[in-house]
Amino acid sequence: MNQTLISDRGSTESLRPRIVVQVSIIRGVGTVRSPACLLVMLMVTVLGCTDGTTPPAGSAPTTGQTSTAPESAPQSAQPQKAEAEVDFRAGIDQATAFAADQGLSVSIAVIDRVLGEEIANGPAADTSTFGASLVKVFLADNLLHRQRAGEFQLSEQDRALLETMLIGSDDTATDSLYGRFGGAEMVREVAQRYQLPSVMPTNQAGFWELTTLSARGVARYYDRLLSRTPMADRDYIVDLLRRSMEVASDGFNQFFGLPNALPGQTLAIKQGWMCCPRDSSYLHTTGIVGTDNRYTVAILTTDPGVFSTAYSTSVLDQIAAFVFPPGSVAE
Fold first, then answer.
1. Full-model pTM
2. Is residue 37 packed enough to be buried (19+ CB in 10 Å), middle (13-18) or exposed (0-12)?
3. What's the longest Cα–Cα distance across the chain?
């Protein structure tokens, strides 16, 4: 059985999954790679689920639990000023129920860095899923960390690629950096440095979008980026995420979810979209919310049985609005 996969990669390639299902991968609607790449066949394995959880599934997740989770608790910085308190537990419960009604599985995690609290939708927040373009933040972090350690000095061209990779979610830039600076080892280094066991690099060479991660892991990554990373590198990454373009390099409108739920707010976002590994499409909205970086958030969705570019962006808008209702974040 052949399925098409469309993601935020700007190319078309062929992919042969495990033994059971043959999947043709089409990454994005932008540039097409060389014919040689189009004929690449590889075995898609089920990437290991972290922390004892199961792969993405269509069933509705458990809701409304505060974390005691596999990854160590958030270590908050001292943000500038607290906004009005938000009932994240109620909002996340509503968001999870709404997603289930729409046929989506959703994983949600929010960290309030003022209160030092983490709120998530139970075990679903630890469910392993494909990260798509979310991995691009890890790659940028790894490059800056290694440069600071003296391993190399990024050229002007490579720094431009790094910026394009984050601001425009550019896949060609990502392919270049991932291919030349270590590939899966770049992801592994970030996961180890930030103590993120849910972040697992793919064993499929070149397919960075098949990196797996969890909502809780992504929210904790942003929190630890803010509190542990040297100021210059931290501010550089956050600034690039705040400058994310509305239309990505492949022509996809990446202002869905958090940007639409929080119009006019200061957001450092990284989005992801991909179809169709494991016979599903994936749509993620994540980032850092507020001028004081008070909240870090990850909302990851899986839409089982959907094999098209008709991503449920409007559903993501509503899910994000349940988590952050109007007026919940003050500038």
1. 0.79
2. middle
3. 55
Percent of the chain with pLDDT over 90: 68
Give the pLDDT means over successive 10-residue stretches in the chain (331 positions). Answer: 45 32 37 34 35 36 38 48 71 98 96 97 98 98 98 98 98 98 98 98 97 98 98 98 97 96 97 92 97 97 80 93 91 63
Cβ atoms 228, 244 nearer than 8 A: no
Residue 9, both tokens: 């990669």
Q: What pLDDT score does 25 carry? A: 39
Tell me 290's DSSP state: S
- Give the rounded distance of the alpha carbon of 35 from its chain centre: 29
Question: At a CB cut-off of 8 Å and minimum separation 6, what does 192 contact?
Answer: none
Report the topology of domain 49-323: Beta-lactamase (3.40.710)
Among candidates 279, 277, 282, which has minimal Cα distance to 104? Answer: 282
Nearest to 25 by CA among 236, 144, 202, 179: 202
Token pair recorded at residue 46: 């089920």
What is the distance between the terminal CA atoms of the chain, rounded to a whole angstrom? 51
- Pairing mode, if any, of strands 22-27 and 267-275? unpaired
Per-residue burial over 273-292, b = 16 or more CB atoms within 10 Å of its CB, e = otherwise: bbbbbbbbbbbbbbbbbbeb
How many CA atoms, within 13 angstroms, populate the side-chain half-sphere of residue 46? 13
